[in-house]
Backbone:
C-alpha cells in the first residue's frame, strides 16, 4: 500500500513537472505571425546587437559580437536620422588580446555636474567577467577609462548604472562549465540574482531567481526593473537607503523577456523577447529563431498594460534580445544575427 502511494505521488509530481516544463518551452507553438509597426530594414547582417541604448540626438549604441570566452566584439552606433551605422574610434585602448571579448549588456550614465557621458560594457573573457568603462566623446569616440572586476562577476548578463562606477548587475547563471551551464538553464533552479557594485565591491541585493536577464531603472531612479527570463516575469524592486532591493510587484508576460529599455519621457518599457522558448536552440544551429518586441505601459512605476509591437518568424530578425524606441523609430537587436530598424507609424496612447 505504501509503495502504491509513493508511486502515485511520484507520478503526480512528474506529470506536474512535465506539464509545467512543456508550457515553459512553448511546445504548443512553432511559428509566430509577422507584425510590423511600419517599414523595416536591416542595418546589421551578422554579429547581432545583443544590447542597445539611446544616448540622445537619435544615436543608439549597440554591443555586437557576443560570445563567451571568444574573440573581441565591437560597440557600434546607429544614427536614426539617416539609419546609418557609424564606425566608432577608440582611444587609450589597453594592449590586451581579449579586450572587449564577447560584449554583452551595456548601460550609459551621464554625470549631472560635468555632462560627461559614460558607457559600461559587460565582457566575457576568461577567467572572469570584466566591465569596460568608456567616456563617449561628442565626436562619437570611445575613450577607454578603466576596467572593473570583482570576484562575484561571473556570467553576468546586464547592468544599469546609477552613479559614477555604481551599478546594479544581473547574474543569470551560476555554473561556468558548459555541461552544467546547460543543465542549469533547463533545470528551473533559482541560482540567479542581482548585485550592486558601489564603486569598490559587489554584493548581492536580490537572490533566488531563475535566469534574471535584462535590468533597467525608472526615470525617477526609484524602481529597478528585472526581466526574469526563466519564469517570463517582469519584477519591480524598490531601492532602499542602502541600495538593497525589495520586490514590490511582478507580472508574468507569457514570453521570453530579455533586455529592457526605458522610455525616459513616458517611463514605458521596451523589451526584446523570445516568443517560442524551445526554438532558442535554433540560434546555435543556423536555423531561424522567432523575434518579438513588447511595449509595457507604465503608471506610477508599475505595469498598466502590455502590447506586442513587432513580431517576425525569424526570416528578417532572428532571436531578438533588445528593443529601444527613439526618434519615432524602433531599433531591434538580436543575440547573434541582425539588427533591424523600423518606422513606427502609430502607438496607442498611454
Residues:
Amino acid at each position: 500500500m505504501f509503495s502504491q502511494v509513493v508511486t502515485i505521488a511520484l507520478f503526480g509530481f512528474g506529470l506536474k513537472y512535465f506539464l509545467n516544463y512543456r508550457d515553459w518551452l512553448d511546445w504548443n507553438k512553432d511559428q509566430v505571425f509577422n507584425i510590423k509597426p511600419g517599414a523595416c530594414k536591416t542595418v546589421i547582417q551578422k554579429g547581432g546587437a545583443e544590447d542597445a541604448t539611446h544616448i540622445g540626438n537619435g544615436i543608439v549604441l549597440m554591443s555586437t559580437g557576443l560570445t563567451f570566452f571568444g574573440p573581441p566584439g565591437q560597440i557600434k552606433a546607429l544614427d536614426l536620422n539617416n539609419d546609418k551605422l557609424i564606425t566608432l574610434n577608440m582611444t587609450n585602448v589597453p594592449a590586451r588580446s581579449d579586450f572587449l571579448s564577447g560584449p554583452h549588456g551595456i548601460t550609459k550614465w551621464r554625470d549631472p555636474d560635468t555632462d560627461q557621458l559614460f558607457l559600461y560594457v559587460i565582457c566575457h573573457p576568461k577567467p572572469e567577467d570584466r566591465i569596460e568603462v568608456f567616456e563617449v566623446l561628442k565626436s562619437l569616440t570611445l575613450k577607454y577609462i578603466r576596467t572593473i572586476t570583482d570576484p562575484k562577476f561571473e556570467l553576468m548578463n546586464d547592468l544599469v548604472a546609477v552613479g559614477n562606477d555604481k551599478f546594479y548587475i544581473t547574474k543569470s547563471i551560476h555554473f561556468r562549465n558548459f555541461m552544467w551551464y546547460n543543465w542549469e538553464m533547463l533545470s528551473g533552479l533559482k541560482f540567479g540574482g542581482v548585485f550592486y557594485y558601489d564603486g569598490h565591491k559587489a554584493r548581492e541585493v536580490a537572490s533566488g531567481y531563475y535566469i534574471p536577464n535584462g535590468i533597467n531603472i525608472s526615470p525617477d531612479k526609484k524602481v529597478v526593473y528585472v526581466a526574469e527570463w526563466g519564469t517570463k516575469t517582469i519584477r519591480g524592486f524598490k531601492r532602499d537607503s542602502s541600495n538593497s532591493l525589495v520586490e514590490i510587484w511582478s507580472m508574468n508576460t507569457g514570453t521570453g523577456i530579455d533586455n529592457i529599455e526605458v522610455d525616459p519621457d513616458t517611463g514605458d518599457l521596451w523589451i526584446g523577447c523570445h516568443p517560442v522558448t524551445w526554438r532558442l536552440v535554433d540560434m546555435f544551429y543556423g536555423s531561424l529563431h522567432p523575434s518579438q518586441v513588447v511595449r509595457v505601459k507604465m503608471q506610477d512605476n508599475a505595469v498598466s498594460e502590455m502590447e506586442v509591437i513587432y513580431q517576425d518568424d525569424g526570416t528578417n530578425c532572428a532571436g531578438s534580445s533588445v528593443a529601444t524606441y527613439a526618434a519615432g523609430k524602433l531599433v531591434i537587436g538580436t543575440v547573434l544575427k541582425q539588427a533591424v530598424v523600423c518606422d513606427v507609424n502609430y502607438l496607442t496612447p498611454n
In short: The two ends are 60 Å apart (CA to CA).
